[in-house]
Design goal:
By secondary structure, the chain is mainly α. It contains 26 helices and no strands. Helix 2 packs antiparallel against helix 3, helix 4 packs across helix 6 and helix 9 packs parallel to helix 11. The longest helix has 35 residues. It is globular and about 80 Å long.
């Protein structure tokens, strides 16, 4: 362990840089973007330095510190060169010099290395591979080959323009999303996340699956604010995962529950990890329409998790000691009210026509004023403030760096056209067969969403896959919801599964085994997006009659229950797996007559299973 006293100066610098990030985010949220270049490039520089200095302060390896210092120098030189050349590039009369090209390449390498340190190797490999493809793809085989891109053109687009590292994802994050990162950090400072977990525990305390069910509630509540499933796992998982393990669940199952529940927060209104605001802007649909459309699927997703957890609990030997009742102090009740009022303030501000960033600022302001009114002790708690400042700063920095790497991917996809060729290939393979097209689209969305927070993943997937889906006649909001779900679920889908990889160390389980278990728990979530297409009335507020919506909700709800129960059948009831899955398919993918027959069969199946369970309990 390094001597922390040796890094006191670094701690001061980290805190100062974090304050710069927070102050910039507040300014942009209230007054708007002051300069695209200075905001995007400056935030990348400050964010990169934050990650580097944090790494140096924690590392005891001399070589690793040396590498971090080299990355800092590379990033600083490349940013300096950007500002030196950018103004002349905008005139269109400037050609990059060899030093411009080398400095740009250093910047790209620095972004990829910082991404590796922020979210792991996979996303760094993806960005690095795409960068290499842009440079040498003219030598690739057949379908993947592009016409060739000069080094000057590659650097111009990826580093010295707003089409690469500093492109739309970067703009979206620094101008809109970071305020919600600060909002989440503030709720942690006010200990509201802990109160939400206690509320969830009180609501589910009598259930056998207790803490596991509570994790789904708490993560859903907190996750709607967070723009990252990983951040949600880290925020609530440190509380819920030990409680789940203490009840008797395996470490793998505990981590899987938290990662699956945290991922679902990104599809839960009213904020949906800030995607609701972005989707409203991209689709041209009112914000409230987006929330209404997302409400029922989110409820069904979490309902499926509850059923799966309860079904799994029946086959496990759990601690059945009496659960202590949980009572709340007046302060905790007020903290719950602060959470509700802050969310309400965000929604009302958005409905009033303000920008998402300003709405986020209003949420932060309401939470701060009310929170410190009942917790004045926090105003003078230096340790708590330092934790808040550094947490908000570092999470923001990591997100900025990640979307910088995403910009490399988007830039190369646009220059080479491989993304559009990929979508075209999928359409030709499916031969205009809707179900096959959707399956291929789902797989592509999972691949494109690998290793990315919700907003960047959503933007990339919609850009690449959205047009192909709409060409099949799918309404725009159904298209966006379809790709969003699979982009979100990529956080628990092997081999990347960042949310599962974040939960595994907390639980002490294997990352890949956790990802497989989380995918099993969340299996209904992989089916619900198909219901958007085959049961379109499921999305409320999209122009369908209430009777049609009620019918679709019934069909999909029963299918969700059957799938969740099939994932964890009772011992000796393996036949329930194919029967349950078959009925679920009939409920969603066939016409009303077949679906109503499946409803009767499904209810009958569950009734018989319940009678058998009662009989077995009486015998035992």
């Amino acid at each position: 362990m390094p001597d922390l006293k040796r890094f006191a100066f670094l701690d001061y610098v980290i805190t100062a840089l974090s304050l710069v990030v927070i102050a910039t985010v507040f300014y942009v949220s209230v007054f708007g973007v002051f300069s695209d270049s200075y905001l995007r490039v400056g935030m990348l520089l400050v964010g990169g330095l934050l990650i580097i200095l944090s790494g140096i302060s924690k590392s005891g390896n001399l070589l690793d510190r040396g590498i971090l210092l080299a990355v800092a120098v590379a990033l600083g030189l490349s940013v300096y060169q950007y500002f030196k050349a950018a103004e002349q590039i905008e005139t269109g009369l400037y050609f990059l010099s060899s030093s411009d090209i080398w400095m740009g390449l250093l910047g790209l390498v620095a972004v990829i290395e910082l991404t590796r340190r922020s979210v792991g190797l996979v996303m760094a490999i993806v960005a690095g591979t795409l960068l290499a493809y842009g440079a040498f793809g003219d030598m690739a085989p057949s379908f993947l080959r592009h016409a060739g891109i000069s080094t000057e053109e590659l650097m111009t687009v990826l580093w010295y323009s707003f089409d690469g590292v500093f492109g739309r994802p970067m703009a979206t994050v620094v101008s809109t999303i970071l305020i919600f990162i600060i909002f989440g950090a503030l709720l942690e400072l006010l200990a509201i996340d802990v109160v939400l977990v206690r509320l969830a525990m009180a609501a589910t305390g009598r259930l056998r699956s207790g803490p596991a069910a509570a994790a789904t509630v708490a993560s859903g509540l907190f996750g709607t604010i967070s723009g990252s499933a990983v951040a949600n796992v880290v925020g609530t998982g440190v509380i819920t995962i030990p409680l789940i393990k203490k009840r008797g669940f395996s470490a793998r199952f505990a981590a899987a529950v938290e990662s699956a529940a945290s991922s679902g927060g990104q599809i839960t209104p009213p904020i949906m990890g800030a995607v609701a605001f972005i989707m409203a802007d991209v689709t041209g649909m009112p914000y409230l329409t987006i929330c209404a459309a997302a409400a029922v699927p989110a409820i069904l997703y979490y309902g499926g998790l509850f059923v799966a957890i309860s079904s799994a609990a029946r086959n496990m030997e759990l601690d059945d000691k009496p659960r202590p009742s949980i009572s709340f102090t007046w302060r905790e009740l007020v903290q719950m009210g602060i959470f509700v009022l802050s969310l309400a303030g965000i929604v009302v501000t958005m409905v009033g026509g303000s920008s998402p960033a300003y709405a986020g600022f209003i949420g932060v302001a309401l939470a701060a004023v009310m929170g410190f009114a009942i917790r004045p002790d926090l105003l003078v708690n230096g340790e708590a403030w330092l934790k808040f400042i550094r947490s908000a700063g570092l999470i923001s920095a990591q997100l900025v760096v990640i979307v910088g790497a995403v910009g490399i991917v988007i830039g190369v996809l646009n220059m080479t056209g491989v993304g559009l060729r990929f979508a075209s290939l999928l359409s030709s393979l499916a031969d205009d067969q809707l179900i096959l097209s959707l399956i291929l689209m789902a797989v592509a969305c999972l691949l494109l969403g690998m290793g990315m927070p919700t907003v960047p993943a959503y933007l990339i997937i919609v850009l690449v896959m959205g047009p192909s889906l709409q060409s099949l006649g799918v309404p725009i909001i159904h298209t966006h919801m379809f790709v969003l779900y699979f982009g979100v679920l990529s956080a628990i889908t092997p081999p990347v599964a960042l949310a599962a990889f974040a939960a595994a160390p907390i639980a002490g389980s294997g990352p890949m085994a956790t990802a497989v278990e989380a995918s099993r728990l969340a299996l209904p979530g992989f089916v619900i997006p198909f219901a958007f297409i085959f049961q379109p009335a499921l999305l409320l507020g999209t122009g369908y009659d209430l009777a049609d919506s009620a019918q679709s909700i019934l069909f999909v709800m029963l299918a969700t229950i059957l799938i969740s129960r099939a994932c964890y059948p009772r011992r000796g009831k393996a036949f329930m797996v194919p029967v349950g899955l078959g009925l679920a398919v009939a409920l969603i993918f066939f016409g009303p007559i077949v679906s109503w027959i499946a409803v009767a069969a499904g209810i009958g199946l569950m009734f018989i299973d319940r009678l058998n369970l009662t009989a077995e309990n009486q015998v035992s």
